[in-house]
Write a structure and sequence with these properties.
GO cellular component, one term: ribonucleoprotein complex
Strand content: 5-15%
Strand order of the largest sheet: 2-1-3
Shape: elongated
Protein name: Ribosome biogenesis protein Nop10
Helix content: 25-40%
Family: Belongs to the NOP10 family.
Number of strands: 3
Oligomer: single chain
Structural class: alpha+beta
Function: Involved in ribosome biogenesis; more specifically in 18S rRNA pseudouridylation and in cleavage of pre-rRNA.
Largest sheet: 3 strands, antiparallel
GO molecular function: snoRNA binding
Amino acid sequence: MKSDIRVCSAWRDRHERPVYSLSSTCPVCDADTENSAPAPFDPTDAYGEYRRALKRRSR
């Protein structure tokens, strides 16, 4: 499923928080926007165990 909600690709540098939009450009700074959906979860991912362990360790 494709998400229509997009986020400013330069929000970390230009904004205090993510700026969401439905268009291909940011309404505040005119930068390009990108898909805001996270990567899909795949339980058979060979490196998923390591990423989940790293995430638990950083909490």
